[in-house]
Structure formats: C-alpha cells, structure tokens
TrEMBL record:
PROSITE patterns: MIR (PS50919)
Any Pfam family matching the protein: MIR
Keywords, alphabetical: Repeat, Signal
Protein name: MIR domain-containing protein
Organism: Ooceraea biroi (Clonal raider ant)
Keyword Endoplasmic reticulum: no
Gene3D superfamilies per UniProt: 2.80.10.50
SMART domains: MIR
Domain MIR stretches: 93-147, 155-211, 212-267
Domain of life assignment: Eukaryota
Hydrolase recorded as keyword: no
Amino acid sequence: MMRKQLYTSNYAEVERDVIRLISQTRGSQPMKSHHVFTPCVTGIALYRVQSFPSSVHSSPVYMMAVMDCAMHLFLSSFTLFLLCISCIQAKGMQHVTCGSVLKLMNMDYNVRLHSHDVKYGSGSGQQSVTGTDMKEDGNSYWLIKAESRKQCTRGQPIRCGDTVRLEHVATKKNLHSHLVSSPLSGKQEVSAYGDHKGEGDTGDNWMVLCNSDFWERDDAIKLKHVDTETYLAVSGRTYGSPISGQIEVVGDYSPNSPHTQWITMEGLFIHPNDFKAQHHHHTEL
C-alpha cells in the first residue's frame, strides 16, 4: 500500500476551528489547545491502533492512523475529522488534489465561500450559499470530489479544465446552480444541494479554470458551472437576518468579471509520495 501524506495550511487557523466546534458540541467553556490531542487519539483507537511507540508524534503508524481517521470518519463526523486534521503539523503543498478539504476566498471581496443549514426564502428554497469574512468559521470547508457519477483517486492533482464537485463538509450538500434568479441581485442562484450521501445531479458540476497544468494553491482560479455556463462569483449584495452581514454568491455570465476569481486558503491537502507510481501500484486505504 502506498503511504500518503497529509498537509494542512494555516495550522493555527484550523486548530481554532477545531477548538470552537468542540466547545459548541460539548456545550462547555472554550477548550485549551492542548486538549485537542486526546479525542483525536480516541478516534484513532476506533481503527484498532493499539500500541504507540514513545516517539508517537513522529511514528509512521501514528501518522497513517490519523490519516485513516480523517479520511474515513469525516463524512459521518465533521468534528472528529477536524480533530484529526489538528493533530498534523502544517506543511506546504503545491497542488489541490482529489480529497482535499479547503476554504476558497473570493479575491475581489475577500470573503470565503460558505454554507449552513439555512434555506433560501425565495427561489429554489434550497440550502443557501454565501460569502463570509470570518476566517475561522468551520462552515466554510469544502471537499473536492470528482464530477457526478465518477470517482477520482484521493491525492490525484486536479488539472486545469477538470470538472469537479465541491461538497460542503458540514452538511454534505454539493455546491450547485441552476436557472433560478438569486434573491438579492437577480443573477443566477447558487445553492447547496444533494442527499445525505453527498449525491445530487449534474447541476453540481463545476469546471476548474486556471492558467497552469494543474490547480495550484497559490493561483487564482475560476469555477465555471457546466450546465449553465455561468461563473461562481460574489455580487456584493449583503443579506439581512438570519444571515446578517454575509454576502450573496451567484452565477455570473461574464467570464471577465473581477468578482469571479477565487484562491485556496486554509485546508487539508492530500497526495501520495509519488503520484506517478500510484498508476501502477496504488492501493486505496
């Protein structure tokens, strides 16, 4: 089995998300950062890793267990997933890959792509998608998946021109659009859609447009909605209650709009030690 590596960006930011989410779950006072490790080990124990060497933090067994915990349990437990992320030291990585979990920031308005279990009061009535300027909000994480009815290998770099889906980690619904007017600007509505397994329809498919061979974390990208040929954008209009201060996210027909550029921010990024070799020897975890 080919061992895979995990990389987190902006470690302190992710750790703060973890601490806040756990405090909310427990209904208790805010946790200290050193409390995070214990529940992560509890998660690892579920995978029957029964012995830890004295150098546990650097042990390959430990690192593999943490990765297994993260990649197999986060779909059923967002909190545990973030706990596992928080146990791994932040490092750099060049590409966005299949299975990466990340936040996207609109480069014009400096807001992160966001969703939550709040439905639109008009239009489709589906789960709303907005932009938020809160960097530490755990509801802004998105999982990169293959397009509808297809699969991709975890760790496989996303090429410019590839079609992907973005699954909202907290609610398991996919970034979606359709021929419905948005509530504030009258542009095209962008929503989150799908069942409890993260499956929706072709309205969940987005093409990654960038200027390199691969989607690189430091580069601006555009996301083109495949069904309607609009571009993921921010309108600049601001919502009132119950999501006061959040910005409307829309589909824009103009590819040259300055509001359509996005960049990768915080997240967890996965890739094999040698991506080329996995075409011959790869075994899924």
